Amino acid sequence: MHPMLNTAIKAARRAGTIINRASLDLEHLSIARKGPRDYVTEVDRASEEAIIEVLRTAYPDHAVLGEEFGLQGDEDAEFQWIIDPLDGTTNFIHGLPIYATSIALMHRGQVTQAVVYDPTRNELFTASRGSGTFLNDRRVRISGRTRYHEALLGAHWPGSAGPDFGAPRFRDMAQGCSGMRRLGSTVLDLANVAAGRLDGFCGVGLKPWDLAAGSLLVLEAGGLVADFDGEQGWLKSGNVLAASPKIFAQMMTSMQDKPSA
Asked: Does the annotation place 87 within a ligand binding site?
């Protein structure tokens, strides 16, 4: 295993310990609102601090981009970590055990290491570029399902809206598949695509820390990741499709030649 991946695993497990401990006493949790339907807790901040401490102790010259504290270090650094300490905060504060920690390493603009850790299930998803995707040391692959009407997809729509918010562009995608699921944690959606539990994922308006680690998990498990035009601008635009090749093609077809609203 790559030493930088080992460091990321150590950091993710440390964050998981903090999250699990706090989950036992949610009534006394300090919660703040960053925006509509966007919450942050003391656990988010404590987890991110713990991750940063592990990463920057091991690699003091690396930059770190985190959801809660922004960029630390040189934005032009050769290595940059991208972290989401607790993706699924709304689930967490409601006691719904669907959330995870995400850590990715970018080397010269390319994601090379990825960890997604689900502390409630003790599931550790890992990937190194060129070495495959693993779940708790067992290699996993994307789903082999090929028929779109049988596909189960994950989704991240703005707010709590369904696919109607995007009019025909997303409505056709949702209506053509077997079902859409909004888990409330994009990093787990992507990890579940990589593990074959979901056949695909469509996300709108996401951030780099939502996508960086999960994208490598999907790619190394044999899947495809692109923006809504089939290009590689998803990390900047935040609009992403991820799926097995055959399902991906059918998701893309459902969006072609249709207005965005």
From this structure: yes
